[in-house]
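Ticket #4471: structure output looks truncated?

Reporter: J.K.
Steps to reproduce: submitted the chain below (306 residues) through the standard prediction queue, then opened the result file.
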Amino acid sequence: MAIGVSLALTTALISGVAVFLNSQAVRAFPDATLFTTLKNSVAALVLLGAALAAGGLPRGLGSRRWLGLVALGIVGGSVPFLLFFNGLAAASAPAAAIIHKTLFIWVALLAVVVLRERLGPWVFGALGVLLAAQLMIQPPAGVSWGGGESLIALATAFWAVETVIARRLLASVPALTAGTARMGFGLMVLTGYLAFSGRLGLIATLGIAQWAWVIGTGVLLACYVATWYGALKRAPATVVTAVLTLGAPITALLQAVASGTVPAPLPLAGQLVTLAAAGGLAAWFLRGKIRPAAAAGGTGGDQSGA
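Returned output as attached by the reporter:
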């Protein structure tokens, strides 16, 4: 459990930096999907190399596990990216931020129902505080709903389902293998989409600076996936995704430093509440003060050390 939570904290740090850098990098590309596909290809290669260096890809996984690995690539590594970026082009930025930041809530609901994770009042209380903090960071007042918002909500649902699939699959599959499958099979779908839409030719127009962005953000993505799946292998899905919300204050800090401005009082308070709630939850799990109750016959807290 301690290793899982520590990996989740590392993932949150990587996420905070990656979101800030990706927001800068995507502006240098003629197409957001092209940037995503190339970045994901670098991540897939890095993860494959790490898996081979760690002892190679396991054999004899069986058809069910292979189906699970393919599902990770479709449900997590490709389709939601396409939905999210297409939705982002039509949705308002505040609506997109609110919808995506509710991911930990949907993961918690699915984890309780599907994985039968039993979470005590401390965890439920922390989740409630985190939700309130997200609404402070991006108040829902004036937010409308349309086709773009629907696509982003669907992408968020896909990522929530991926988290649950990964948590169950990682009980018997190495994290690096699962991460390689997520990015590798996902890359096939993204490349096919680019080819179908006639945008593969844009690769030839990229310069050295753009390739530097691709490599840098791709390596960060590989580190994110490796530590995230490593965390999911050892800790409940609800706890891991709750801890990941710590990435938002890190991104906000980097944006404030880069722009030389201080956030408005309400969003700043929301970021501080996020730090307190998610950081406090992680600290209590690390100290062993909170333990998820074992679910009889389930795949929740009783397999945290798998």
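Triage note (M.O.): checked the attachment and the full token line is present. The radius of gyration is 19 Å.
Status: closed, working as intended.
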